């Protein structure tokens, strides 16, 4: 081996390996203000900025990967993505299949109905009403458990936007969803004209969970700890609050 080839081989052997690409799954359905595509098709929103900040703090090379919500956990367990950061609540049912990072936000669950309508966030307050809810969510599970016995009908939608549209059009009487996500709808021209928050539902940690965390395949402890470290770092250095202030008027980290 010549001196030149020996040096080249030594440098090649000593070169650091490229950072492993981590595919972060988000819901392909728009969910403003957390994640939605802009006019150019780029994903923007609070959760998108948070993902980028967590990955930078954890020194991970991340690629945001949209996946249909109802197939996002199977996409994780089959290895098509490496983690889920899509406003997924940490629940006992999901923890039977996947693990979670520490929480990165936690907000109340609310009922929204027509302005002036006789709707309340209780079984009695929704008696005889048509309730719309997004499929495969904690809200769908909650509505089925607490309101199915008194509601006239529970309508299932593939996206929350579809439920909101039907609420505005008067085709349903109420919808249940995350308070922050519904704030964005209620701040829109359509939402301001038609609807209002009727209050938060009674908490049920088994269904509604313990906040939102990153979903991780079972056994991927190293990745979970990297994401936990990233979350802790951006909270400690103020990045979390800076990102949040660009979207919300108060903290959404929760208790």
Strand order of the largest sheet: 4-1-5-12-6
Write the element-wise H/E pattern from the N-terminal end onward. HEEEHEHEHEEEHEHEHHEHEHH
How would a crystallographer describe the biggest sheet?
5 strands, mixed
Mean pLDDT: 92
Principal-axes shape call: globular
Overall CATH class of the largest domain:
Alpha Beta
Structurally, how many domains make up the residues? 2
Number of helices: 11
CATH architecture of the largest domain: 3-Layer(aba) Sandwich
**Distance N to C terminus:** 64 Å
**CATH superfamily descriptor of the largest domain:** Periplasmic binding protein-like II
Q: Low-confidence parts, pLDDT < 50 over ≥5 residues?
A: 1-17
User: What portion of residues belong to β-strands?
Assistant: 15-25%
Helical proportion? 25-40%
**What structural class do you assign from the helix and strand content?**
alpha/beta
Description:
By secondary structure, the protein is of the alpha/beta class. The chain is 37% helix and 23% strand. It contains eleven helices and twelve strands. The strands form three sheets. Strands 4-1-5-12-6 form a five-stranded mixed sheet. Strands 9-8-10-7-11 form a five-stranded mixed sheet, sandwiched between helices. Strands 2-3 form a two-stranded antiparallel ribbon. α2 packs across α10 and α2 runs antiparallel to α11.
